[in-house]
Design goal:
Strand content: 5-15%
Number of helices: 9
Distance between the termini: 42 Å
Largest sheet: 3 strands, mixed
Radius of gyration: 19 Å
């Protein structure tokens, strides 16, 4: 079975490089696409079109995600299970975007693997992780969780894959993505490394601003 890892990474990287990223916690639903892609929860979609939600059950439970292709309108409707945690929804949507950008139509094992690989690169760009390692040393699962918008399981798998690789892509697009995210990543490590010497917050007129600013960054609102 041939898995097109090269184009999975290339397509995800090219999509990211076209964005104006402000945060390394990439919200896939908010990215700009050159295709007509619309997002709905499975629960809301089935109510709107009066369709049984059980149509989206597999092995007795609701699927994480599903993409409806409307070729006559060159349109894609990406559905997700809104009962999942936010990081899992983000991954699910990235996975479905992978199917779209890889031109998948069969939902085979090969296409599932490719969509997973695409999603990993879209949410946790490999070159960014490489730069984290070069600048700050070993990259841990907690670092992946702190920098990117992913679940612990996804972070563990990404680190395991990264540690087994002996070379990394450093194309112009890879470097551009790092340029967009480097300030955010460096700020994460600045906060991480300052935890051993936390400074007391002396209440002044701008205490609220300092407090809110740190948490806005930690939760990816900056």
């Amino acid at each position: 079975m041939y898995i097109d890892f090269f184009n999975c990474q290339k397509n995800a990287t090219e999509l990211l490089a076209k964005q104006k990223l402000r945060s390394s916690k990439i919200n896939v639903m908010k990215l700009l696409y050159d295709k007509n892609i619309f997002f709905y929860s499975i629960q809301d979609y089935t109510k709107t079109v009066n369709k049984p939600i059980t149509d989206f059950y597999q092995n007795g439970k609701l699927v994480d995600g599903y993409t409806i292709i409307l070729p006559e309108d060159s349109m894609y409707i990406v559905l997700y299970n809104k009962e999942l945690c936010k990081s899992r929804i983000n991954w699910t949507i990235a996975h479905e975007i992978g199917h779209i950008y890889m031109g998948h139509t069969q939902d085979t094992e090969k296409e599932e693997i490719e969509a997973h690989f695409f999603a990993a690169q879209l949410i946790m760009p490999e070159y960014v992780i490489y730069k984290m390692e070069c600048i700050y040393g070993e990259v841990s699962v907690n670092d992946i969780l702190g920098v990117f918008y992913v679940s612990k399981d996804a972070a563990i798998k990404r680190i395991n894959t990264f540690e087994r690789k002996s070379y990394y892509s450093d194309t112009k697009d890879d470097c551009h993505i790092w340029d967009m995210l480097s300030d955010n990543v460096n700020e994460y490590y600045k906060i991480k490394n300052s935890k051993k010497r936390r400074n007391p917050l002396i209440y002044t007129d701008n205490s609220r601003e300092i407090f809110n600013s740190e948490y806005e960054w930690l939760y990816g609102f900056q």
